[in-house]
Design a protein that fits this description.
alpha+beta; six-stranded mixed β-sheet
Length: 763
């Protein structure tokens, strides 16, 4: 692939890369105090992880769950530039205020600023003709990056750029050379990937303030973002352009508007720019700036961003044997908190899925819900570390339901993209409901889940009619049907909790419809045309992206997508022995995926694909057959070979935090196989100690004894001083606080093997 070639070429700059890495974190060896109560954990975050290869990770300045992700935009050269930045690149076109992290589709990049010197052309140019546009070469040796801060030198203009952010504001610091022709270009044309401007507006309100908006069409079909920018120095001149010509006046509405603020500068003169954004209006953007960034103290803003990250990272304080493990862990935790991102103003106004402005909401509205990915582990992690935010995530989904008539599938900037399959929002809401998260309207939640699952669209009419989705009626029928079964089972559990017996029986039955895709003769989940006919020909290795019965996968990978009823899947194989044999074979099976397979099928161990989310729970299924040592072997292999403290340290897309959430859980030694039953299955912790803040001034501590690369098998446990033999732990036990002690050894033990100690669907 072209992108792989680009990455290989970037390895030539390895020495430069290592030099750049020295800017990431000083004092890596010890957890110094940031304040009287916070450890300096941002020192262990390496934001470069996942910016090469296929990681698609965001690089830039932001705060946890913030609306603003301010960072460099490269030219979009293909799939690996979905976040706007790829480590193999060397040309920056501007610094945009909104980015995605780890997605497989590119969008955003809105409201791009670029400092410049001399004559520039206000229009997009091709990468090979960057000198005819705004682009500048840069070198990684001049990049400095840490949570909440990014800096780089622009070679073409000899300008140093520094960036930091608040929740809704980007803060730019440009250090110019001596020039009578210094500029800051406000670019409302450029976006990332599939994004295209539809209408843009810019106006200079005074000689130091600019406002406007950008309406665009891309993955988000109707995205609208407003901005207000204030400069620390008055302009010498301000002009506008629509890419074809300069326009008279200081205001322009056009499809592709630019503004150019000009200055005379002395050597090393600093010009700062504050940019506030809003999904609602220019006036709200101004209010956001007044509330979050009223002054001009750039250093203090960096410090506050660092403190915001440390406050969240300190919710899990770990100890590990080496700095590499610390960086891998805390970068993963950092990646889980880039999104969902705020999508409301300081006054709680937001733009809804109905395209209307909703004022003074009673909850905090969010966006960027990559639910097909994140329902598996990221959202269960949030219920532990971010219960209040989790409630607002749910409240946002319920508002979306009220506005568009169904729960979100993949929501972005107030738009339903219908990306991926299933109804994962149902599983997220059911999990929050069953865990008793406060601040959720339970009646509305149940209504939303039930109505969404009783629709006819996206194959659900076939689920209701036949119990399966015919393969000749719907693309990706098996993946879609298996995902629906997970959501149905989750809804059934809520019905059971509320004693809605008829609903429970109905949705619990639908939760077992995975059986209708299982072919006992081949031992795989596969597409069926009718009650008596399977789709043929059938090859469990083959994958044709978005054209066959699976979503970014094949029969080997999707057969295991039954996290809600593993014991039922065991029964389909005729018992534990046959199930275990098949599961063992997954990790050694070799076959050709085919030329048309999705690039998301990555991180392969046999046919297990860790680079794609439907595989994430599979290694933990050994616990259900009393063989936890096999889980230990596999999760250690994955953590040690498919995650790394380097630029291409992820084996697939970050996927908006899910890839990293798997690591955070697995490093601590447990994982939510079933994402909505509150059960976390043990694996093999690679850290030595963890203190998890679980709210109400309580902590859950994990102490791992005799841990090493050889000692990867759990020997015994105690929970609050009492022997604990179960191969899982429940959410309530974690949230109650306490102390779990795990003793490790070099050989498998009898711990967790007894039938009574194994996890099951209904806990």
């Amino acid at each position: 692939m072209k992108n792989k070639k680009l990455f290989r070429n970037s390895i030539k700059g390895l020495l430069v890369c290592l030099f750049a890495a020295s800017f990431i974190q000083p004092c890596i060896g010890k957890q110094t105090k940031k304040s009287s109560h916070l450890l300096n954990l941002t020192q262990y975050v390496n934001p470069y992880i996942g910016t090469a290869g296929h990681g698609h990770a965001f690089l830039g300045a932001n705060v946890p769950f913030g609306l603003v992700q301010l960072g460099p935009n490269n030219y979009t050269r293909g799939w690996d530039w979905c976040s706007g930045y790829h480590y193999s690149d060397s040309i920056v076109t501007g610094f945009g205020h909104m980015h995605l992290s780890g997605t497989g589709i590119g969008d955003l990049g809105d409201i791009s600023l670029m400092p410049a010197i001399g004559q520039v052309t206000t229009k997009q140019s091709a990468p090979e003709q960057y000198l005819s546009g705004l682009g500048s070469l840069y070198h990684h040796a001049t990049e400095k990056v840490r949570p909440g801060y990014y800096a780089v030198h622009l070679d073409r203009y000899n300008v140093n750029v520094e960036l930091t952010a608040t929740q809704r504001c980007g803060f730019h610091k440009y250090t110019f050379p001596a020039s009578s022709d210094a500029k800051v270009v406000i670019n409302l044309e450029s976006g990332i990937g599939w994004d295209n401007p539809m209408e843009t507006y810019i106006t200079s309100e005074t000689d130091s303030t600019i406002s406007g908006y950008r309406f665009s069409k891309g993955w988000a079909n109707d995205q609208r973002i407003y901005f207000h920018a204030t400069f620390s120095k008055p302009f010498k001149n301000f002009i506008v352009s629509d890419t074809t010509a300069l326009k008279p006046g200081r205001t322009l509405k056009a499809r592709r508007a630019y503004g150019v603020a000009s200055f005379s500068t002395k050597a090393n003169e600093v010009i700062m720019v504050k940019v506030a954004i809003s999904p609602v209006s220019i006036e709200n953007a101004k209010a956001n700036m007044k509330a979050e960034l009223a002054g001009w103290n750039f250093k203090q803003t960096i410090s506050k961003a660092d403190e915001a990250w440390n406050r969240e990272l300190n919710k899990v304080v770990i100890k590990a044997d080496d700095a590499t493990r610390m960086r891998t862990f805390y970068t993963a935790l950092y990646h889980t908190m880039i999104a969902p991102s705020l999508f409301c103003d300081v006054n709680k106004d937001y733009r809804g899925a109905d395209k209307n402005t909703h004022k003074n909401a009673t909850f905090t509205n969010y966006t960027t819900f990559s639910l097909w990915d994140t329902y598996r582990a990221a959202h269960p992690l949030f219920t532990i570390l971010q219960p209040e935010r989790s409630a607002d995530f749910v409240n946002t989904m319920l508002a979306i339901y009220q506005q568009q008539g169904e729960l979100p599938v993949w929501h972005l900037m107030g738009n339903e993209t219908y990306c991926m399959v299933g109804c994962p929002a149902v599983t997220v809401i059911a999990d929050a409901y069953l865990k008793g998260l406060k601040g959720i309207d339970k009646k509305l939640a149940y209504e939303a889940m039930k109505k969404t699952m009783m629709q006819d669209g996206r194959g659900l009419k076939y689920v209701k009619q036949y119990g399966y989705i015919p393969a000749d009626s719907t693309v990706e029928s098996v993946a879609m049907g298996l995902e629906y079964a997970i959501a149905d089972w989750s809804l059934g559990q809520v019905a059971k909790r509320e004693a809605f017996t008829e609903d429970y029986n109905y949705f619990d039955k639908r939760g077992k419809y995975y059986r209708n895709y299982f072919d006992a003769q081949t031992g795989f989940a596969r597409g069926r045309v009718n009650d008596n006919t399977w789709r043929t020909p059938f090859n469990p290795f083959s994958s044709i992206h978005r054209q066959n019965d699976y979503t970014e996968g094949n029969g080997w990978q999707y057969t295991w997508l039954v996290p809600q009823n593993v014991e039922g899947l065991i029964g389909l194989y005729g018992g534990e022995k046959a199930f275990t044999k098949k599961l063992d074979s997954l990790f050694i099976a070799k076959g050709d995926l085919g030329a048309e397979a999705s690039p998301d099928i990555s991180g392969l161990i046999g046919q297990y694909a860790h680079g794609n989310e439907p595989s994430h729970h599979i290694t933990y299924m050994y616990a259900y057959v009393g063989q936890p040592w096999k889980t230990a072997d596999k999760v250690r292999e994955i953590m040690n070979t498919l995650y790394a403290d380097k630029f291409d340290g992820l084996c697939g897309n970050e996927d908006v935090g899910q890839m990293s959430a798997w690591y955070v859980f697995s490093a601590m030694g447990f994982y939510p196989v079933n994402p909505s039953n509150g059960c976390f299955v043990f694996g093999s912790p690679v850290i030595n100690n963890a203190t998890i803040s679980v709210g109400n001034n309580k902590t859950f501590t994990l102490n791992v004894i005799n841990n090493s690369s050889a000692n990867r098998y759990i020997q015994r446990m105690t929970l609050n001083g009492k022997t604990y033999s179960k191969s899982y732990i429940q959410y309530k036990d974690i949230m109650n606080g306490g102390k779990l002690v795990i003793e490790m050894g070099a050989k498998p033990s009898s711990w967790g093997t007894a039938p009574a100690d194994r996890p099951r669907s209904e806990m």
